Amino acid sequence: MTSADTATLDQEARISEILQGAVDPHVHSGPSIAPRAVDHLELARELSGAGFSAVVTKDHDYSGVMCAALIRAHHPELSTQVFSGIVLNNVVGGLNPYAVEHSAAMGGKVVWLPTLAAENHLAWEASSDWSHPASTQKIRPASAVPLFDADGAMLPELLDILDVCAATGLALASGHIHVSETKKVFAEAKKRGVERLIFTHPEDIVGASMEDTLEIADMGAQVEHSLAFFVEGSKFRNRSNEELKAFIDLVGPERTILCSDLGQVGTLTPLQGFRKAVETCLDLGYTEAQIKPMVSANAAQVIGLGG
Predict the structure, then answer these.
(1) Strand 54-57 and strand 110-112: pairing?
(2) Average pLDDT for residues 119-135, to the nearest whole number?
(3) Taking residues 182-211, what's their average pLDDT?
């Protein structure tokens, strides 16, 4: 074995060690109406083998809390706890406080504001040169789920949902709404006692600048970056390693979450995405002590597993 081979093995072992206890709080496993390369159970098996402590599955069209509960109940051999949440798109009724309350009661961890049905997402998709991978011809096209009335006031259903998050401890994630809307909703959420806030991929769709990202982090939100947009080998990659470093340095590793946002067909698996991300962070000069919170503790805390 050459010294280069030994160095590679040492690096792989180091990556594996850093990922012990990791949490992926945003992953697109199936079943889904959109094509997926891995289902929830297969994902849990793969991540258990890698030592992950938890995963939160996300589907744009249904709450996965029942699937997660079944896996937790019938597969005690899996060391990775499987959780889910709800995305407030058309299929669940948009801004539906009943559905959010139900998701929380069944062990859900995150409520995402509209994604494919966000007014901002629909405007972005109309002007974009590519179609979102979860878009499908199997059901009617998404219709907008607004958050504000004609006078700019938050809709009563949204305020109800914020109160449910405050009462149940659900994390509130911004989804694909515009960054300007995120600022308003998060400010109101904090006033109403919501303690766990996630700013979803500022690097894509939501129109956020670096200044916006820092402002939202300063509101108490964790900034969640989708590895699908950053790591080499991902078919969705549209950002560089240097841009990832700029985002991390902007708010610090203590306010940064790295999620895979993977699970789609024809690209890296979620685990491959995490392994590549850790390798990239090491190459960028981050220490193990800086990387660990970004792949484990920060996400664990924001979904209520870290105290």
Answers:
(1) unpaired
(2) 83
(3) 98
